[in-house]
Design goal:
Layout: E1 4-9, E2 26-27, E3 30-31, H1 32-42, E4 47-52, H2 56-65, E5 71-76, H3 83-88, H4 91-95, E6 101-106, H5 114-126, E7 131-137, E8 146-149, E9 154-158, E10 172-181, H6 182-189, H7 205-212, E11 217-221, H8 234-254, E12 258-259, E13 266-267, E14 272-273, E15 278-279, E16 284-286, E17 290-291, E18 296-297, E19 302-304, E20 307-308, E21 313-314, E22 317-320, E23 323-324, E24 329-330, E25 334-336, E26 341-342, E27 347-348, E28 352-355, E29 358-359, E30 364-365, E31 369-372, E32 374-376, E33 381-382, E34 387-389, E35 399-401, E36 406-407, E37 412-414, E38 417-419, E39 424-425, E40 430-431, E41 440-441, H9 453-469
Parallel strand pairs: 1-4, 1-6, 4-5, 7-11, 12-15, 13-16, 14-17, 15-18, 16-19, 17-20, 18-21, 19-22, 20-23, 21-24, 22-25, 23-26, 24-27, 25-28, 26-29, 27-30, 28-31, 29-32, 30-33, 32-35, 33-36, 34-37, 35-38, 36-39, 37-40, 39-41
Antiparallel strand pairs: 2-3, 6-10, 7-10, 8-9
Length: 470
């Protein structure tokens, strides 16, 4: 029978002051439980049961929405009566896995890692343990259960509030992570009694119960100093984010990436950065973002699931699900929305928004321009204030601009429309029909001047303004 995992995710997190399960609070943009599940999958564990509680439907939505490498199920803990009680709720899951070992994890301790999981399992199987506890040695053990050791292994785990003065001096703490022989766990799980300061069913009591039944209990000291860290309030969550943020940044510093200032810099753990790239202050890189070599990611950039080529310069660019090819220069104050492809050597100026469009090689989009649902060729020039009118209130239509075209300032391209290769549009035109290659399109309304019209309007506005001041 394959090994399996139970993740405890029933906590409300009242001190977080949220209306969702605590495990969905984010570290580097990912729910804490996602960190835990990824560690399990990285360790080769594919059969996972999540014990949900408060707002359990949100856990179901999270599980349904992620890409799992194996089978993930959920069970409900209707009453929050402790960690032992939570595992009891997964009784059917456990009985379906007798013959293997069960890993129990806390969904709000995001820094568990695959190396620790596999190392603890190796010790667990080597010694034939009924239970193996993952522990950590810390300077300040306040709030954590203490691990009481013997020459043969461990004698038990004492929760902080139940410790004696001597036990409070112990620095080896329980991480909340356990490997159990599944059959042995079921033999003692329902013998747990709520005889403690909290009146709860402690999973830690299984250790002593197994020892009394002649089972071996041991502890694996993780080399990960943060394996036991969790968060009970916003300060704790901020601390987790700071630890995760600096861990990622340290990794990229070791890879030779230049950071000019770390203020406001946040990089997701799945982001890839090429050598020779510089990251300035206030940069956020999230999701599956990939950045090439020798790029400059300037101040205020926010990139999510975006691929950046080599030699790209970005300045205050917000890009989502976009692709930018080599040697493009973009910004400041540019938004690239999903489906955008910026080809090689493109230059985009300030206050430009591009959505679901391809901008061909060497094209220049100067400033104050919106390009949506468009296929733009090579070496095209967009003047200031150009806009594609791609939406008529019901449907969206595409605009096609051929190679070497020149789109004059304040041109409106009313889709569906095609601008031929080498064609020009005159400044201020509203183009509603196709323009042939090499032609000049001038489409301006006839000027109509109504004498005294503005004067009458101004008189009405002035009276209204004066009345409002009385």
């Amino acid at each position: 029978m394959a090994n399996n995992v139970i993740i405890l995710a029933g906590g409300q997190g009242k001190r977080m002051k949220i209306n969702s399960p605590k495990v969905l609070c984010r570290v580097l943009g990912e729910p804490m439980i996602e960190w835990v599940m990824r560690a399990c999958e990285d360790a080769g564990l594919k059969d996972i049961c999540v014990v949900k509680g408060f707002a359990g439907e949100q856990i179901d939505e999270f599980v349904a929405g992620r890409r799992s490498v194996g089978e993930v199920s959920t069970v409900l803990q209707a009453e929050r009566l402790g960690t032992g009680h939570a595992v009891m709720m997964a009784e059917d899951f456990l009985r379906g896995h007798i013959g293997g070992s069960t890993l129990v994890l806390c969904g709000d301790a995001p820094f568990i890692d695959a190396a620790t999981i596999k190392g603890a399992l190796e010790l667990h199987e080597k010694k034939g343990c009924g239970v193996t506890v993952v522990t950590s040695v810390v300077e300040d053990a306040t709030g954590y259960g203490r691990v009481v050791r013997t020459e043969e292994g461990i004698a038990g785990i004492v929760e902080h509030k139940d410790c004696t003065e001597e036990q409070l001096k112990i620095r080896e703490i329980n991480s909340g992570c356990y490997w159990f022989d599944t059959k042995a766990l079921l033999e003692v799980l329902f013998e747990i009694k709520p005889n403690n300061a909290q009146g709860e069913y402690y999973l830690t009591d299984c250790v002593e119960l197994m020892i009394k039944k002649g089972r071996t209990a041991d502890a694996y000291i993780s080399e990960n100093p943060n394996v036991a860290l969790g968060a009970n309030d916003r300060r704790g969550l901020l601390k987790l984010n700071d630890i995760a943020r600096m861990s990622v940044i340290d990794k990229w510093l070791d890879e030779g990436i230049e950071f000019t200032c770390l203020d406001g810099v946040s990089i997701g753990r799945d982001v890839v950065i090429g050598r020779g790239t510089r990251i300035d202050a206030g940069v956020e890189l999230r999701g599956k973002t990939v950045i090439g070599e020798d790029c400059v990611i300037g101040r205020g950039c926010e990139l999510e699931n975006t691929a950046i080529g080599n030699g790209v310069v970005l300045n205050n660019v917000h890009a989502f699900d976009a692709v930018v090819d080599d040697n493009a220069k973009i910004g400041p104050f540019v938004q690239l929305r999903p489906g955008t492809h910026i080809c090689r050597g493109v230059k985009i100026g300030d206050f430009v928004e591009i959505k679901n469009s391809t901008i061909g090689e060497g094209t220049a989009v100067a400033h104050l321009t919106y390009v949506g649902d468009s296929d733009v060729g090579m070496n095209v020039n967009f003047g200031c204030g150009v806009a594609t009118a791609n939406y008529d209130g019901e449907k969206k239509f595409r605009t096609v601009v051929g190679d070497n075209a020149f789109i004059g300032c304040n041109t409106n391209l009313v889709a569906p429309v095609t601008i031929g290769k080498g064609a020009y549009t005159a400044a201020g035109s509203t183009i509603t029909g196709d323009v042939p290659a090499d032609a000049l399109a001038i489409e301006r309304g006839q000027a109509v001047i109504k004498e005294e019209y503005a004067k009458k309007k101004l008189e009405k506005r002035t009276r209204k303004f004066e009345d409002s001041r009385k």
